[in-house]
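Hi all, posting the design record for the shared folder.

TITLE: backbone redesign
STEP: 1 of 1
STRUCTURE INPUT:
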């Protein structure tokens, strides 16, 4: 048996089946002892014969290869630091659809806005809502209104006493 320890009970069962096979047990007896089908034992034995004992260990999931390399993903913050207006957008607010367009323009890969959110989380960016304040906002006038008018408006009328 290999020196690598199994990571879960399924691996341990497959490795135990191989140990028993090495000890001369018949596949039907191994299947009965481990509570599996003879077909499962047969498949495990075939895996070892074609790929070695390592073939009995769990394999990492397949799936498609990532479209962006780790280096390209790490490059995203520096692309976005240039600002949205540098890419022809109006205003400096980044949205997922805007970022998707930048990725397509700069890296030649198209992503859905939903997947852009996953990429942003991967590089440590969080979703933030921009503060919506008018650029012509007059802080002094607002403070004056708060102190002179609002305070008077907040005052409750005096309670009437019944005669």
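Okay, here is what came back for every position:
SEQUENCE:
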């Amino acid at each position: 048996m290999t020196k690598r320890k199994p990571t879960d009970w399924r691996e341990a069962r497959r490795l135990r089946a191989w140990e028993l096979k090495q000890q001369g047990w018949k596949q039907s007896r191994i299947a009965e002892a481990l509570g599996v089908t003879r077909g499962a034992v047969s498949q495990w034995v075939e895996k070892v014969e074609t790929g070695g004992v390592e073939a009995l260990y769990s394999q990492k999931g397949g799936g498609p290869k990532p479209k962006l390399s780790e280096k390209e993903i790490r490059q995203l913050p520096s692309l976005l630091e240039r600002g949205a207006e540098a890419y022809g957008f109006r205003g400096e607010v980044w949205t997922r659809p805007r970022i998707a367009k930048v990725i397509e323009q700069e890296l030649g890969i198209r992503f859905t806005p939903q997947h852009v959110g996953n990429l942003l989380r991967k590089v440590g960016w969080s979703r933030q809502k921009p503060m919506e304040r008018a650029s012509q906002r007059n802080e002094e006038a607002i403070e004056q209104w708060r102190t002179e008018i609002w305070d008077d408006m907040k005052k409750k009328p005096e309670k009437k006493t019944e005669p």
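COMMENT: The chain has a mean pLDDT of 86.
Let me know if anyone wants the other runs.
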